[in-house]
């Protein structure tokens, strides 16, 4: 009887071990994607049309009158371009211990006499942001270090450009003369150019098909 109990116990242990091993060996489907809910900031078609029509009425005629042609309306970036840019900024930010909070999409325009891009047309630049005093401030991940976050504002100022969109105070004082920025503007041509942490080079429409 004792022998039967020992054998039974041994078989039970073996069975439990076998089942556990079988569970551990169940292959994990690495291709399974997590279902994502509709983001809160997506809009309806009526909401989209409302914005498009308001732009057509209040911005487009003024720009066409000033320029003599319709300015760029669309900036196309491939998914790969955006993903690579975000991955690069994340990598630099992580290496330097900087919080990467998002991206500012900023309007600019190619000079008409430019020998790059699409001369005479508006384009979009994207600039990464970090949290500074509770605000999302544009920063340069390539120029920043572990000990200092270099903001887009201070780099632009060193070239004589007054960036006024980081705070309400900056914007209110946008027309106040800044002697240092003016001096930097005078010396811009002598100052060496630097690669920035901002992105650009999109496909714009118009004028391109």
TrEMBL record:
Record's keyword annotation contains Signal: yes
Signal peptide coordinates: 1-22
Swiss-Prot/TrEMBL keywords: Lipoprotein, Signal
Region feature (Disordered): 190-209
Tree of life domain: Bacteria
Protein name, UniProt field: Probable lipoprotein
């Amino acid at each position: 009887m004792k022998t039967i109990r020992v054998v039974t116990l041994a078989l039970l242990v073996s069975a439990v071990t076998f089942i556990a091993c079988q569970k551990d060996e169940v292959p994990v489907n690495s291709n399974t994607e997590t279902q994502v809910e509709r983001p809160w900031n997506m809009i309806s078609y009526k909401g989209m049309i409302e914005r498009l029509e308001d732009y057509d009425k209040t911005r487009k005629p003024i720009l066409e009158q000033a320029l003599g042609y319709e300015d760029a309306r669309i900036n196309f970036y491939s998914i790969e371009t955006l993903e690579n840019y975000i991955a690069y900024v994340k990598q630099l930010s992580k290496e330097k211990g900087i919080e990467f909070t998002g991206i500012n999409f900023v309007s600019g325009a190619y000079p008409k006499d430019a020998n790059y891009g699409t001369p005479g047309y508006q384009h979009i630049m994207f600039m990464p942001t970090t949290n500074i005093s509770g605000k999302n401030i544009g920063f340069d991940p390539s120029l920043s270090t572990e000990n200092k976050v270099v903001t887009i504002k201070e780099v632009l100022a060193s070239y004589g450009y007054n960036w006024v969109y980081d705070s309400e105070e900056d914007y209110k004082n946008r027309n106040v003369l800044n002697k240092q920025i003016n001096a930097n503007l005078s010396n811009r041509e002598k100052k060496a150019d630097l690669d920035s942490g901002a992105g650009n080079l999109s496909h714009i429409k118009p004028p391109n098909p």
